[in-house]
Recover the amino acids of this structure.
C-alpha cells in the first residue's frame, strides 16, 4: 500500500526533499508512527510531497510528477490556507471561481488515475493577526466542502473541530500562529486522518 501526502507547509514540515523516505516533523510523521505498528505485517509506504507555500494551483501543476507518476494507492491532501494568506501577505488576489476550477481539476486528475483521494480540510485558528482572514477563508471553505464531499473518497473536517476546542482552551495549544499546528495539533490531525486512511488499507 503506497500513500502520498500532498500539500503545503503543514504537510511538508521541514522534510528532507533529497530523501524520499523523509516524512518531516509534522502530522505525516505522527501518523506514520501510529499507523505502522497497527499493521506490522503490511507493507505500507508513506511518501511526503508537501511543499511550503503551495496553493491549489501549485498542486495541480505538479500532480503528475509528484503523485500520479508514483502510482500510489491513495493520496492524502491538505491545501487551501495559502490561497487566503497570500491575498493578505503578498496582495495576490484570490479568485474563488478559479480556485474551484483548480480544485476540481486536481481531484479529477487523481480519480482518473485510479487513486483514492482523502481530503483533509484546512483550518484557521483565532490568532489575533489571523482574524481578518476569516471572512474570505469561510468562502473558500464553502467551496472545499461542497467539492470535496462530492468528489473525494474521504473528507475529514478540521476547522470546526479546532475552533470548537479553542472556545475553552488557548488556540496556541494547537497552533501558535493560527495556521501551523503544534505537536498537539499535529497529533489531533493524525488521529482523525488515520481513521479515514484505515478504511482503504488493502
Amino acid at each position: 500500500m503506497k500513500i502520498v501526502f500532498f500539500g503545503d507547509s503543514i504537510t511538508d514540515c521541514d522534510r528532507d526533499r533529497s530523501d524520499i523516505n523523509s516524512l518531516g516533523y509534522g502530522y505525516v510523521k505522527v501518523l506514520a508512527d501510529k499507523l505502522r505498528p497497527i499493521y506490522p505485517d503490511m507493507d505500507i509506504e508513506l511518501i511526503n510531497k508537501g511543499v511550503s507555500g503551495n496553493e491549489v494551483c501549485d498542486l495541480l501543476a505538479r500532480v503528475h510528477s509528484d503523485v500520479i507518476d508514483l502510482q500510489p494507492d491513495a493520496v492524502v491532501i491538505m491545501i487551501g490556507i495559502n490561497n487566503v494568506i497570500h491575498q493578505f501577505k503578498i496582495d495576490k488576489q484570490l479568485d474563488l471561481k478559479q480556485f474551484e476550477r483548480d480544485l476540481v481539476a486536481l481531484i479529477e486528475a487523481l480519480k482518473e488515475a485510479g487513486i483514492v483521494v482523502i481530503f483533509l480540510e484546512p483550518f484557521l485558528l483565532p490568532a489575533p493577526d489571523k482574524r481578518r482572514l476569516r471572512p474570505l477563508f469561510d468562502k473558500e471553505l464553502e467551496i472545499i466542502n461542497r467539492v470535496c464531499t462530492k468528489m473525494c473518497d474521504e473528507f475529514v473536517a478540521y476547522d470546526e473541530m479546532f475552533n470548537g476546542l479553542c472556545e475553552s482552551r488557548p488556540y496556541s495549544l494547537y497552533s501558535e500562529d493560527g495556521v501551523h499546528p503544534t505537536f498537539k495539533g499535529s497529533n489531533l490531525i493524525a488521529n482523525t486522518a488515520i481513521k479515514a486512511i484505515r478504511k482503504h488499507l488493502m
Notes: Residues 2-198 form a domain with the Rossmann fold fold (CATH 3.40.50.1110). The first helix runs from residue 9 to 12.
